[in-house]
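Q: Sequence in, structure out?
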Amino acid sequence: MNYSKRERILVTLLGISVLLVSVVLFLSFGNYSKKESEEQALLFLEEVEQEGMEERNAFEETQETQETQETQETQETQETLLVVDIKGAVKKPGVYYLSPGSRVFEAVEEAGGFLEEADELQINLASVLVDEMLIYVPKIGEEKTVISTIESKQETGDAKISLNKATQSELETLPGIGPSKAAAIISHRQEHGDFKGVEELLQVSGIGPKSFEQLKDKIKVN
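A: Exactly. Output:
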């Protein structure tokens, strides 16, 4: 088929136009795809970040729960243990936690054992420990005054503190009772006479219901 010069020019221009339109469409489609890809990538990153935050929060909550449980278990364990104070001629004097039913020799072992100058014959190693017990290991030639006090409590099976007979220092061994409250207890019994019952401790300044709950099983009046 023979085309005239005019027709050839028109065909050429039409071809160029089609090409330009195709290029424009391609470029437009490419820009759209690029924009769409960027948006999808941003959405993906946001989802990943959100999942990471959720996992981190879940991990932190689990850690906090475990720490709380461990703390509660430790507190419950300590509440069931006996607390004893061992002093004198032992290698590591101090306060120790031991299981109910433990004996004095076990407390001595916890404290690292006797020193060479300890007078072991003055200690009844078979004695059963009681809560808040003070164990004093004397040196050879030292008097046995503290040990006698401890053993007398064990023999009677009564480690309670008498509100009517206790000294200032003995009252201060009670939980929550410091020098000022101990002095207030002594002052109260001097002004009002002996306590008739442990409940009268609530009449002492500074002793409230919460304090009394901690003390009622550790005190007596006779």
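Helices lie at 5-80, 104-110, 145-156, 168-171, 179-192, 209-215.
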